[in-house]
Design brief:
By secondary structure, this protein is of the alpha/beta class. The chain contains 6 helices and 10 strands, in the order E-E-E-H-H-E-H-E-H-E-H-E-E-H-E-E. The strands form 2 sheets. The chain has a 6-stranded mixed sheet with strand order 5-4-6-7-10-9, with helices on both faces. Strands 1-2-3-8 form a 4-stranded antiparallel sheet, with no helix packed on it.
């Protein structure tokens, strides 16, 4: 993530080799073993996120609830400084944009985009920016180049905007060799608190860790 060369081998799981950067503490899959696009799409297509099952809704609520609290604190009347409702982006929404749908039902419109399931290119999001908040629900662990991905998202944010991330952190795990996150071959970039601190410091963000695996990255307003 940081581009440094001070990396060490950490562990092997299911034939996949993982390394740790001593500078930014990112745990990452060996670059030679990154999944092909077709394999990624096949894996993501198995996710049935169009059903409002109680389990799936509870899963999404872990991110939705703190984001709603943040929005209502920042805009008590659900109206931005420009006189519009705050708008969000669900980045990496998967085959069905359930989280965006739930946010819209609460009064906050959200644009949904996914690299495999949206018909338009990522560059089209630039024309729709700025967004007041961006949702990354179980997405960051799939980033091949996390620093570049987050830099792109920052370019879409309004001043003082929020990137809300849900991703499990490797420093919260007692035994990495038994960590369920490493069972998924598309989980290629695993963060720790130190990783997120490093990212926030380099990109002008303020990091707040919320309950569980939720991290808020707020764009620091100039002045």
């Amino acid at each position: 993530m940081c581009g440094g060369g001070d990396c060490c081998f950490r562990l092997e799981r299911h034939g996949r080799r993982y390394w740790t950067c001593r500078d930014c503490d990112l745990l990452f899959l060996d670059r030679a073993q990154l999944p092909a696009s077709a394999d990624e799409r096949r894996r993501y297509s198995l996710h049935d996120n169009s059903q409002r099952s109680s389990g799936y809704l509870a899963f999404l609520e872990r991110l939705r609830r703190p984001v709603l609290d943040w929005l209502r604190q920042r805009w008590p009347e659900h109206v931005s400084a420009a006189g519009n409702r705050p708008r969000g982006l669900d980045y990496g929404c998967g085959p069905y944009p359930m989280l965006a749908e739930l946010m819209a039902e609460t009064g906050f419109p959200v644009v949904a985009w996914d690299p495999y399931f949206s018909e338009r290119p990522r560059s089209s999001l630039v024309a729709e920016a700025p967004f007041d908040f961006i949702l990354c629900c179980e997405v960051a662990e799939h980033f091949f180049r996390p620093r570049e991905e987050f830099a792109f998202l920052i370019g879409l944010l309004a001043p003082g905007g929020l990137i809300a991330v849900m991703t499990a952190r490797h420093d919260a795990v007692d035994r990495l060799e038994a960590w369920h996150y490493l069972s998924d071959e598309t989980h290629v970039s695993l963060f720790s608190r130190r990783s997120l601190d490093w990212l926030a410091g380099r990109l002008g963000l303020r990091l707040t860790l919320r309950a569980g695996d939720i991290a808020f990255l707020e764009l620091v307003e100039a002045g």
